[in-house]
């Protein structure tokens, strides 16, 4: 039952990430073609709740999706099982979340 839940959660996060990826790419293309500097980009994102929510959602989805995916790879290729496998998944997920959350905070509110 756990594997089915993780499978479904990974698919749900993929559905969530798809429009966020396209949105992120669109913003990057706009910024590059517009010739915006890093200072100008930060001027537009600092203090913005909308950008915080957009990229914060992205980070949560990526952390969950990536941790579940790596859990599967480590189990199938590395033979890790049981508690060690679950601890690995949680460590990866929390590490991805912490790294991404720090970046989102720096771009939107720091």
UniProtKB/TrEMBL annotation:
Cofactor(s) this protein requires: heme
Residues that span the membrane, as ranges: 12-32, 52-73, 85-105
Lineage top rank: taxon: Bacteria
Alphabetically ordered keywords of this record: Heme, Iron, Membrane, Metal-binding, Transmembrane, Transmembrane helix
Subcellular location: Membrane
Pfam family, any one: Sdh_cyt
Coiled coil: none
InterPro entries noted in UniProt: SQR/QFR_C/D (IPR034804), SuccDH_FuR_B_TM-su (IPR000701)
Chain's role: Membrane-anchoring subunit of succinate dehydrogenase (SDH).
Protein name: Succinate dehydrogenase
């Amino acid at each position: 039952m756990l594997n089915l839940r993780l499978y479904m959660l990974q698919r749900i996060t993929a559905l969530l990430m798809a429009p966020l990826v396209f949105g992120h790419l669109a913003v990057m293309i706009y910024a590059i073609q517009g010739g915006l500097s890093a200072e100008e980009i930060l001027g537009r994102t600092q203090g913005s709740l909308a950008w915080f929510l957009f990229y914060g959602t992205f980070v949560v989805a990526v952390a969950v999706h990536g941790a579940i995916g790596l859990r599967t790879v480590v189990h199938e290729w590395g033979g890790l099982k049981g508690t060690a496998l679950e601890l690995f998944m949680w460590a990866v997920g929390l590490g991805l979340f912490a790294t991404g959350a720090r970046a989102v905070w720096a771009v939107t509110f720091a």
